[in-house]
Design a protein that fits this description.
Protein name: Response regulatory domain-containing protein
CATH superfamily: Response regulator
Strand order of the largest sheet: 2-1-3-4-5
Helix content: 40-55%
Strand content: 15-25%
Modified residues (4-aspartylphosphate): 52
Structural class: alpha/beta
Keywords: Phosphoprotein
InterPro entries: Bact_response_regulator, CheY-like_superfamily, Sig_transdc_resp-reg_receiver
Largest sheet: 5 strands, parallel
Pfam families: Response_reg
CATH topology: Rossmann fold
CATH class: Alpha Beta
Distance between the termini: 11 Å
Length: 120
């Protein structure tokens, strides 16, 4: 299926999301902070990048904006996960290049549907 980078600092969510998407047949690289995410993005080709908004070292917003400055990465789909679900935050992310936004908490089934829609 798809190659996905998951950047999430909460261990339980990393495990839940990782297991859920791997069960759907996706190949995942999983990191726990924004710096690692940016390194992986620079080194690998992904179909989708899932970024937590609030992470150590670099936020999801920082990673998104730096990633979208890389010409060869501009077409990569980005899904932002965040407990900050205010409309203004969502618009900020979309303006920076995020393709979609998923507020926390969410169900694994919701995430699978969102990922499948984004990859279709």
């Amino acid at each position: 299926m798809a190659t996905i980078l998951l950047a999430e600092d909460e261990a339980v969510l990393r495990m839940l999301i990782g297991d859920t998407l791997e069960d759907e047949g996706h190949q995942l690289d999983i990191v726990c902070d924004g710096e690692e995410a940016l390194q992986k993005i620079g080194q690998n080709q992904y179909d989708l990048v899932i970024l937590d908004y609030m992470m150590p070292k670099l936020t999801g917003f920082d990673v998104l904006t730096q990633m979208k400055q890389m010409p060869e990465k501009q077409s990569v789909k980005v899904l932002i996960l965040s407990a900050k679900s205010q409309h203004a935050e969502q618009e900020k992310m979309r303006s920076a290049g995020a393709d979609d936004f998923m507020p926390k908490p969410f169900s694994p089934l919701e995430l699978v549907r969102k990922v499948e829609d984004m990859l279709a």
